[in-house]
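Subject: mismatched residue count in predicted assembly?

I count 632 residues in my input, but I want to confirm that the predicted structure covers every chain. Input:
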Amino acid sequence: ADLAACDGAEQRNGQLTKPPGALGRLEELAIWYAGWRGSARPTLEAPQIVIFAGNHGVCAQGVSAFPSEVTVQMVANFEHGGAAINQLAKAFGASMTVHALELDRPTEDFTKAPAMSERDCVTALQTGWDAVDPSADLLVTGEMGIGNTTSGAALGAALFGGAGEDWVGRGTGVDDAGLANKARVVDEGLALHASRDPLEILRCMGGRELAAMAGAIAAARAHRIPVILDGFICTAAASVLEKTQSGALDHCVAGHLSAEGAHGKMLEGLGKEPLLSLGLRLGEGSGAAAAIGVLKAAVACHSGMATFAEAGVSDG
Amino acid sequence: ADLAACDGAEQRNGQLTKPPGALGRLEELAIWYAGWRGSARPTLEAPQIVIFAGNHGVCAQGVSAFPSEVTVQMVANFEHGGAAINQLAKAFGASMTVHALELDRPTEDFTKAPAMSERDCVTALQTGWDAVDPSADLLVTGEMGIGNTTSGAALGAALFGGAGEDWVGRGTGVDDAGLANKARVVDEGLALHASRDPLEILRCMGGRELAAMAGAIAAARAHRIPVILDGFICTAAASVLEKTQSGALDHCVAGHLSAEGAHGKMLEGLGKEPLLSLGLRLGEGSGAAAAIGVLKAAVACHSGMATFAEAGVSDG
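Triage response: the counts match. Full output below for your records.
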């Protein structure tokens, strides 16, 4: 972050026509955003949403309530403007692109083999990196991939410690037996793939859309574009970066707390407090997109308000 | 609420391209909004913010960190577009009007006399009622009034029970001695004004801007306009309606949890769960305005998404 911009933003914040601290977390958000944008009085006008879709070999283990065909069907829904994320993009003035990542060639079943070859993983990371528009001033990464909460749980366990049962959740809606099955699948993955190198964990138990999200979030850092993290899968993908280099997610804020059980624990592991907690568990970047309004509110107040001197208001 | 519209909205919600319940509270919000708007597929395009300002005789008791002159100065700031609420109105496409309520004639010091005469109280209620645009599709009521957290605390204690110390907070920033002083002032008010009739409590210990907010929220009900409640003062004013008639706030949702200490207890008393919890304590309707984005997100998803049949997506 740009320390001069942070200082300038902090100074400006202290002069705005409100009691000190009265805008709560909006003040802190605006200063954080100012630092990454390199301006003490930034604007937020070009948010970008990138959605990555991938299919998962681990679906052969019966981990999802929905069939794998739904991934490609939902990509068509994104392209035709019918999904939740399309409505949220429109509501908050965000551009949106959708990247279907070799849906007819799912990852390998990670209970049997690494999910991706090195080449596949690097290709997905690169696709994610390239998907980011350098002129965007905010990034949301979303995903669609039937079976990917199981990948997310495997990443959580491998990156933060614990077993399958500590990290699996109901995803799109599995029952108790389905939940136990997901835990078994994660435990088998953890046993088969012993490396605890974060990128190797991503390759062995992640998926193309997770790798692409990690690539996009890293690209945003290079372009000084702040990121709003979405829920469980997005946070799992982002955690690969943080575990590779501490501080790698300083340009990211947690958009929401997902209803997917272990998301709160993962955010705690990253030291991130979510902006919203509304029980969403859809993916698609929907929770992060819903939080765009909060960040817009923060930046609008910070950059638009009059100072005590400008407004002729007594400052107490 | 319109039960046919609620039913229609609920049915539509079940057909949208997402796992059941995956949009969490956004689903419940959209159905609630649909019911009040009388349409199973409503739009949210004309939010209105009304700000009421009043001065408080109880400032003579030293209850605020800011001088009373700040009320009129902030009204000018609202009129010139420099306050936080102006930026939020712009960010969320809301219209905004400001109503200065006889600022040169403060209410009486409620430790010595009723804050308002019956005539003053009715005039303020009527001003609030008349301020609501019947063609709005969402209402936010905000306030400005140096000293009014003390009025809010007095209303909280009188309406929900308890003593001054249970309901006072730091407002714009009083210290420990200031907090104890506010509790004393509230206790003196409670002792002097024995009636526990909600409207009489409003008249004796409220203020013009609180009465106006109550009038506006009642008018919104008559016009079937959903309301996002703001923080401590707004919720105190709204509570007068709920205590007058149970269910009177069914058309209202709590926009945020204020950092003003007793707001959470007041929302619990009303059975309302806040949409946001970001530590705001500014007033002006700012917390409610920040939550407009959440409601917009909910309505956009509900009314804009494709159904499983429309999108050709398998529904699990």
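DSSP finds 15 helices and five strands in chain B. Marking this ticket as 'not a bug'.
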